[in-house]
Specification:
The structure holds 2 protein chains of 2 kinds.
Chain A (H helix, E strand, L loop, with lengths): L1 H7 L2 H4 L3 H33 L8 H23 L2 H11 L6 H4 L3 H27 L2 H9 L4 H16 L1 H14 L11 H12 L3 H32 L8
Helix pairs in contact in A: 3-4, 3-7, 3-10, 3-11, 3-12, 4-7, 5-7, 7-9, 7-10, 8-9, 10-12, 11-12
Chain B lengths: L8 E12 L2 E12 L3 E5 L6 H8 L7 E6 L2 E2 L7 H5 L2 E4 L11 H12 L4 H14 L15 H13 L5 E5 L7 H16 L3 E5 L3 H7 L2 E6 L2 E6 L1 H6 L4 H10 L1
Parallel strand pairs in B: 3-8, 3-9, 6-7, 7-8
Antiparallel strand pairs in B: 1-2, 1-4, 4-5, 9-10
Helix pairs in contact in B: 3-4, 3-5, 4-5, 5-6
The chains are: A mainly alpha, B alpha/beta.
C-alpha cells in the first residue's frame, strides 16, 4: 500500500520537476488560447462561406457562392474526418521539406498551433453555422432594409447573436481543445503531458503524471463552472431552457 | 442643354412579377406613389400585398419588372442596391429590433454604418427620434424590456433615422394586442400629417379611410380596385372588393 501511495503521491519525486511542469502547464494554456483564437477566426470564415447564397436569378452569378460553399464543405468534411494527430504529424513532417518560405522553418509549437487551429476551425464552423441559422430571417431583413451591406449585417447583427446562442457548445470545444494540446507531445512539444512524461521517465515515479492531471482540472473545472453559470444566466434572462412548473 | 427633371413620384413599380417556384404571387403590378401620398394596401391573406411591399425595397427580388425610388431604378443591373434601399424605410409586422443593442443603438446603428455618422451625432439623432415617438425614457433599455407597441415605435424611429423618402409599413400593427395598436397608428398618422410618403399594408380599414389618400385592393397578385379610400370602402365597384370588405368591416 505504501508503495502505491509513493508511486502516485511522492512529493520528493515531484519537487525537482515542478518548475518544468509549471512551464508545461503555462505552455498548454498558451497553445489552447492561441489555437482557439485562430480556430474561431477560421470557423467564422468557414461558417460564413457556407452561408453564401445569391438572390440573383442568373446561373453565372449563382455559381460563385455555390463554389464557396463547396470549398467550405470539403474543408470541413476533411478536417472533421481526419484524426487531429495525423494532421499535426503531416504538418510537422512535411513543412520542413515544403520549400514554403515562412513555413519551412517554424518551431514545433507553431506547427502544433497551426494544426490544432486548422482542425478546430472545422468543428467551430459547424457550431457557428447552427448559430447563424438560428438567427431569425427578420433580423437580416431589418438590417438590409436600413441599407447595411451583407457584410455589415453579418458582423453587427447576425454574428453577435449567433455566437451568444452557441456559447455553450463553443466553450465545450474549448475544453476539448485544451486537452487535445497533449497530442503535441508526439512532435516533442513539452506542454503539460510532455513535461510530466519527461519527469516520469527520469524517476520511474508517476506523481508527475498525477500532477499533470491536476493541472488540466485546475484549468477546465473553473471553465465548466463558468459555462454552467452562463447558461443559467441566459436562461433567467431569456426564459430559454427547461421549464419548471410547480 | 440638360436639366434634371424633378420626379413627382417617390416610388414607382412597373409590371412587377414575383413567383415562388411555380406559384405566381404577383402577376404584373403597376403602381405610382406621389411624393407625400399615403397609399394603403388591403387584401386577403395570400393576396400578395406583403410580397409587393417587400419587392419595393428588394428584400424580395422580383422575378421581373422594375422598381424605382425617386428617379433611380432599384432593379437596374448596376444599381447601388444597398444605398437605394436605405431611401425606403421599412417597418415589419414582427418589429425585428436588434435584441443585443439598446433601444438607442438600434436607432443609431444604421446611420453610423451606412451614413458614416459619428457615434455622438448618431446618438443625438436617435434621441431626437425617440423623443418624437415618445420613448425618450426607454433609450437605454433593451428592446425585450418594452411592450410590443413601444417596440414598434422604436422600429419606426429606426427606419426614420436613415431619412427615407418613403416609408413602407408591412402590417405594422398585426402582431399587437388591440390596446397597443392605437399608439402605433398615432405615430403613423403624425408621420402622414408631416408629409411623409407612405405605403401601408394594413388590416386597419379605419386608418386607411382616415389617413390614406388612396386605397388599393389586391387579390390574386393583381390590383383589383384603387381609389379614394372613403369611396372604395363605401361603394366598391368590384365584386371581390365587396366580398372582402363585407368580411372585414
Amino acid at each position: 500500500m505504501e508503495r502505491l501511495i509513493d508511486l502516485f503521491f511522492s512529493w520528493d519525486a515531484l519537487e525537482p520537476y515542478l518548475p518544468s511542469l509549471v512551464r508545461g502547464f503555462w505552455l498548454t494554456v498558451q497553445i489552447t488560447f492561441i489555437s482557439f483564437f485562430f480556430a474561431m477566426i477560421g470557423g467564422i470564415f468557414l461558417a460564413v462561406l457556407r452561408q453564401q447564397r445569391s438572390a440573383s436569378p442568373e446561373p453565372i452569378v449563382r455559381a460563385a457562392p455555390a463554389f464557396a460553399r463547396f470549398i467550405a464543405v470539403v474543408y470541413i468534411d476533411l478536417m472533421r474526418g481526419l484524426p487531429a494527430l495525423l494532421v499535426v504529424l503531416i504538418l510537422y513532417l512535411s513543412l520542413p521539406f515544403s520549400g514554403i518560405p515562412l513555413l519551412e522553418d517554424v518551431g514545433n509549437v507553431t506547427v502544433g498551433i497551426i494544426g490544432l487551429s486548422l482542425v478546430y476551425a472545422a468543428y467551430l464552423a459547424e457550431i457557428l453555422r447552427a448559430g447563424i441559422e438560428s438567427v431569425e430571417r427578420g433580423q437580416v431583413e431589418a438590417a438590409r432594409s436600413l441599407g447595411m451591406t451583407s457584410g455589415e449585417t453579418m458582423r453587427k447583427v447576425v454574428l453577435p447573436q449567433a455566437i451568444r446562442r452557441v456559447m455553450p457548445p463553443l466553450m465545450n470545444e474549448f475544453i476539448i481543445l485544451s486537452k487535445d494540446t497533449s497530442l503535441l507531445t508526439v512532435i516533442s512539444v513539452t506542454e503539460l503531458v510532455g513535461a510530466a512524461r519527461d519527469a516520469q521517465s527520469q524517476t520511474f515515479n508517476s506523481t508527475s503524471l498525477i500532477a499533470a492531471g491536476v493541472g488540466y482540472l485546475i484549468f477546465t473545472i473553473p471553465l465548466t463552472r463558468l459555462l454552467d453559470h452562463y447558461i443559467e444566466r441566459e436562461r433567467r434572462q431569456h426564459g430559454a431552457g427547461t421549464v419548471v412548473i410547480p | 442643354m440638360s436639366h434634371v427633371v424633378e420626379s413627382v413620384y417617390a416610388l414607382r413599380v412597373e409590371e412587377l412579377h414575383k413567383s415562388f417556384g411555380e406559384h405566381e404571387v404577383l402577376c404584373g403590378i403597376d403602381l405610382q406613389v406621389h411624393k407625400g401620398e399615403v397609399v394603403c394596401v388591403i387584401g386577403p391573406s395570400g393576396s400578395g400585398k406583403s410580397t409587393l411591399l417587400r419587392c419595393m425595397n428588394l428584400i424580395e427580388v422580383p422575378t421581373s419588372g422594375r422598381v424605382f425610388i425617386g428617379e433611380d431604378e432599384l432593379t437596374a443591373r448596376r444599381a447601388k442596391t444597398n444605398h437605394l434601399r436605405s431611401r425606403a424605410g421599412m417597418v415589419f409586422q414582427s418589429f425585428n429590433l436588434f435584441p443585443h443593442y439598446s433601444v438607442r443603438d438600434n436607432v443609431a446603428l444604421a446611420p453610423m454604418k451606412v451614413k458614416g455618422m459619428s457615434r455622438e451625432e448618431a446618438h443625438e439623432r436617435a434621441d431626437e427620434l425617440l423623443a418624437r415617438v415618445g420613448l425618450s425614457a426607454h433609450a437605454d433599455k433593451r428592446p425585450r424590456a418594452l411592450s410590443g407597441g413601444q417596440q414598434q415605435r422604436v422600429a419606426i424611429a429606426r427606419a426614420l433615422a436613415m431619412d427615407p423618402e418613403v416609408m413602407l409599413f408591412d402590417e405594422a400593427t398585426s402582431a399587437l394586442d388591440p390596446e397597443l395598436v392605437v399608439e402605433v397608428l398615432t405615430v403613423m398618422r403624425e408621420l402622414a400629417e408631416g408629409g411623409m410618403t407612405m405605403v401601408v399594408v394594413t388590416h386597419e380599414i379605419g386608418f386607411a379611410r382616415e389617413v390614406g389618400d388612396r386605397l388599393i385592393f389586391i387579390d390574386g397578385g393583381r390590383i383589383i380596385e384603387s381609389g379614394v379610400p372613403a369611396e372604395v370602402i363605401a361603394n366598391p365597384r368590384e365584386e371581390r372588393t365587396k366580398q372582402f370588405l363585407a368580411r372585414v368591416l
